[in-house]
């Protein structure tokens, strides 16, 4: 048997953490009386990890550590963050993945220096509009939640380069995403998308676009103006054809099969003849077929 996937490992960790919490009743008060002593300095950053502690609530003392720059609260049982999180104004990285968060507090917008926010594998159904105030944000992962849309204000996140919204309940790519001009990586796999709007052409820096596992019927011609694309994954959709202008995406280079391979992932679609036969000849054959004489 092969190695376990990261998803399987994460599920095991979540199960183990929950079992531990049930047995111990969570972390007792007083266990964090020396929480400041647990903070360390690494590569010049003030860091604190409280991952996998069986926390149902974050200790009050935590919010007094205003010097913290990296905070890891992953793989706990947190159902909410208090408004006090806004006091950690020096945070650069906030890791919340693998909890039970139903929402993020508006005060998260006070984290003006935040560059990385991991909130995947929670129970989020929405994102606060105040997150738009975190204008230094570069990486945002909200994967594996229950999100159907994003507030329009998030278009202010112009420095965002990586956005992961996979495994949610999104039917249309949120309009604010098209305003995130700095995006290089956009992951929307396993949602409920039926189309991609023409505004996709505004994401001129995009190198990786993943929309596999949706219900997309057609690709817009404007997608073919994203000449920086190196990986385009449209596997497992309802595509019957592709735009003639697809040959303009020269950086895709090949038809790809492995999920991490660069290139065009398209074979698992109900493509109509003669496209399906052409694909057997690889990407160059497809481009030759599509390119005007």
The gyration radius over C-alpha positions equals: 22 Å
Number of strands: 11
- Biggest sheet: strands, sense, closure? 11 strands, mixed
Strand fraction:
5-15%
Structural class: little secondary structure
Number of helical stretches of at least 4 residues = 4
How do the strands line up in the largest sheet? Answer: 1-2-3-4-5-6-7-8-9-10-11
Helix content: 10-25%
Helix and strand string, N-terminal first?
HHEEEEEEEEEEEHH
- Average pLDDT value? 90
Q: Quote the distance from N terminus to C terminus.
A: 50 Å
**Shape by Cα distribution:** elongated
Low-confidence stretches: 1-7, 17-32
Topology at a glance:
Blueprint: H1 6-24, H2 35-38, E1 40-42, E2 45-49, E3 70-72, E4 93-95, E5 116-118, E6 139-141, E7 162-164, E8 185-187, E9 208-210, E10 231-233, E11 263-265, H3 275-279, H4 282-290
Parallel strand pairs: 2-3, 3-4, 4-5, 5-6, 6-7, 7-8, 8-9, 9-10, 10-11
Antiparallel strand pairs: 1-2
What attributes characterize this protein structure?
single chain; 293 residues; little secondary structure; eleven-stranded mixed sheet; 13% helix; disordered N terminus
């Amino acid at each position: 048997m092969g190695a376990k996937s990261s998803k399987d490992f994460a599920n095991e960790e979540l199960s183990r953490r929950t079992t531990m919490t049930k047995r111990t009743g969570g972390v007792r008060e007083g266990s964090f009386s020396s929480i400041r002593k647990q903070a360390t300095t690494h590569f010049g950053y003030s860091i604190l990890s409280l991952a996998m502690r069986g926390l149902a609530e974050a200790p009050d003392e935590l919010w007094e550590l205003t010097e913290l720059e990296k905070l890891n609260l992953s793989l706990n049982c947190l159902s909410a963050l208090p408004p006090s999180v806004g006091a950690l104004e020096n945070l650069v990285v906030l890791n919340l993945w693998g909890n039970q968060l139903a929402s993020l507090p508006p005060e998260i917008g006070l984290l003006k220096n935040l560059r990385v926010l991991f909130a995947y594998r929670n129970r989020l159904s929405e994102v606060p509009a105040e997150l738009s105030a975190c204008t230094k944000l570069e990486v945002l992962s909200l994967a594996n939640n229950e999100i159907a849309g994003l507030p329009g204000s998030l278009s202010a996140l112009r420095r965002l380069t990586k956005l992961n919204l996979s495994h949610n309940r999104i039917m249309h790519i949120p309009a604010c995403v098209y305003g995130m001009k700095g995006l290089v990586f956009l992951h929307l796999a396993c949602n409920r998308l039926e189309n991609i709007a023409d505004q996709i052409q505004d994401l001129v820096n995009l190198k990786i676009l993943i929309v596999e596992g949706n219900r997309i019927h057609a690709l817009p011609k404007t997608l073919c103006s994203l000449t920086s694309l190196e990986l385009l994954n449209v596997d497992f959709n309802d595509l019957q054809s592709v735009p003639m202008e697809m040959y303009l995406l020269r950086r895709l280079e090949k038809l790809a099969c492995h999920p991490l391979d660069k290139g065009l992932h398209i074979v698992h679609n109900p493509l109509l003849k003669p496209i399906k036969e052409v694909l057997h000849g690889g990407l160059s054959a497809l481009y030759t077929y599509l390119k005007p004489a």
